[in-house]
Fold this sequence. Notes:
By secondary structure, the protein is α/β, with parallel strands linked by helices.
Amino acid sequence: xxxxxxxxxxxxxxxxxxxxxxxxxxxxxxxxxxxxxxxxxxxxxxxxxxxxxxxxxxxxxxxxxxxxxxxxxxxxxxxxxxxxxxxxxxxxxxxxxxxxxxxxxxxxxxxxxxxxxxxxxxxxxxxxxxxxxxxxxxxxxxxxxxxxxxxx
Length: 152
């Protein structure tokens, strides 16, 4: 298992949890963004900067992910592509996205996009707080505990 992070909009507390998890478990964490990212010095953590542009980071993750990899993203189309390739998706708020839930999320995303394009103010997501951090940490711990262990 490898962890891929859609890092452009990923909250700092999530990145910090992932850095600690990489050191604790030895699982590789790769952050992908269109800007330079600071990551702690580690053999298990790296950052990839992709050129600017619409969905460039998402495309890089979707091309790179393999069956069983974990992707951290709030981007619904990216999540759908990862699930289709056999990856696991966890959003930064701790929601595990699956084949059973992704269609509904895609439909809701499209519906909200239609509302916004017709001029309706839909607002944004609620603030990222302690409850979201805890939900993410719980779900991440479950996924890491279920991951195949590295053999030396």
